[in-house]
Amino acid sequence: MKTKILLIRLLIAFLPVALLGCQPEENPVISTCLLTSATDQLVESSGKLTDELNRFFTYTGSKLTSITEKSTQSDAVYVVEYTNDRVVRATNGQRVITLGYGSGTKPTSSTLSLNGTVQSTFGMEYNESGRMTKIVEDRRVLPNNSLTTQRAYTFVYDNTGNLSLERARFTLNDGSVVEQETEYQFDTKPSAYKRFLELPLLTVVALSQPIETRPGRLWHANNCTALQSYNINNGSRSNIRESSTFTPVYDAENKVVSQDQNARLFQASVPNPVTKNNKQTFSYVCE
């Protein structure tokens, strides 16, 4: 009798664990798949595709070894260096990005140098889940045709961990400030960057290039399906700047492989918005 009671107790103790083990992931994707490229192309009225941004990633095993950013304005290949399995440097010729760490595992500071001269410094903050909540760039040397001395991006996450709001604050060299805000909506399936291991470095690399305007999109957990961007005046939203919808295509493992973006761009001096269509594609390598 005692043996039967013991068996019943063991079965009851094991049952919740077994049931939990059988539950599927909320948005499953093969964890051993690594993002190798992300492209963003303008779809012209003729149907022709024109490259606006290409990103490429290489790995040794699962360790990131290089980041390539190609756009109509720049072409950079950063080779990634590690110390004790932490990213400490990324080098593109005479352009060098270094990362600094505090007591945690995420970098809290970064420096962009060219020919040994510091161009920009970055400060980064994170929430308890390790998601970036703020990145501030202080420019010591202004890029060509730029009046912005500081860029500050703040990221707000909802209770499911999605980056739902991105706020941008630009300080100009005359002391004036321009503020913008972007609100995102999401699918239930994962974004292409969800399991990218070196997001802080990628964020700094992206901001070091002239084309990136919304670094928060790199920190999306689920794939974005829509966004609305506004100008901010005296702390409140004023006129809308952009309204975009995304139509994604997923493979059998829920990885996003392409998506069509339909954007409506607004200007205060123009009565009707301008329509812009883009196509984004993503590729992966899976073990």
TrEMBL record:
It comes from the Bacteria. Keywords: Signal. Residues 1-21 form the signal peptide. This is DUF4595 domain-containing protein. It comes from Spirosoma liriopis.
